[in-house]
Amino acid sequence: MKIAVAGKGGVGKTLICGTLARLLARDGYSVLAVDADPAMNLAFSLGIPATEVSKIVPLTENEELISSRTKAPYGSTFGALVNLTPTVDDITEKYGIVGPDRVRLLVMGTVRSGGSGCMCPANSLVRALIRHITLVEKDVVVMDMEAGLEHLGRATVRGFNVLLCVVEPGLQSIETAARIKRLANDINVKEVVGVGNKVTSKRDVKSITESLEKIGMPLLCSIPFDKNIIRADSSRAAPIDYAPSSKAITAIKDLEKTLLTRYT
Ligand SMILES: Nc1ncnc2c1ncn2[C@@H]1O[C@H](COP(=O)(O)OP(=O)(O)OP(=O)(O)O)[C@@H](O)[C@H]1O
Ligand SMILES: [Mg+2]
Question: How many whole angstroms from 44 Cα to the centroid of ligand 2?
Fold first, then answer.
């Protein structure tokens, strides 16, 4: 099962991604969590201690790895002769860090130069790696995406079974969802489903359901607004460790069960 999580900035992608990864790992799956958001917050939501987080070198900043695998100088851009099929099959093992419940985390980092079609060495490596992960990785992959899907290019989600599009009450995140849905359609990703977050009433759920219906996206589940999640944030703890039986975490458990039923 390969799950990509996308949505407007601040809707709760990282909360959902990290918590799902931990829950799936506890249920016996071998889980690879991929942080594809340049903001790189997934480690905290997975419960990796701050001392460990500070040591993480994102793949796109690992100069030696990039130049050795792509056979192009780090930082070179257009015009460099880049190996487009760099060896990547050992990267998950070598560069992934293992956190609580044995979730393995890979932090991609930022691809700075160019647009989504950029073929700089760092981008080539990350693309090859994601292609590899979607083809070869056998168990569960959850990927935390950047808000707009731009950074790694849309093609990164192609190998995923499902793209979860997180929305919250209000129209802004619905507009982003509509855009994500169009991008996904363009590249033939069929399974794009909505997840409501920070809902405070049945009316919120109804209005999200109706808005998503208009763009042809089913709402898979809703997660309530929950102060525990903010408190976890303030104490720099993973929500699942800070408040394991809070209502938001309970709702993410339901989401996990639904995903397992639908996609395994
Ligand atoms: N269900 C919830 N109840 C209350 N607060 C929440 C909930 N979900 C997320 N939050 C809070 O909203 C903020 C954004 O959450 P999160 O970082 O998971 O979103 P994101 O979509 O990954 O954001 P970004 O686009 O910045 O990466 C955090 O401060 C988090 O604590
Ligand atoms: Mg995030």
Answer: 10
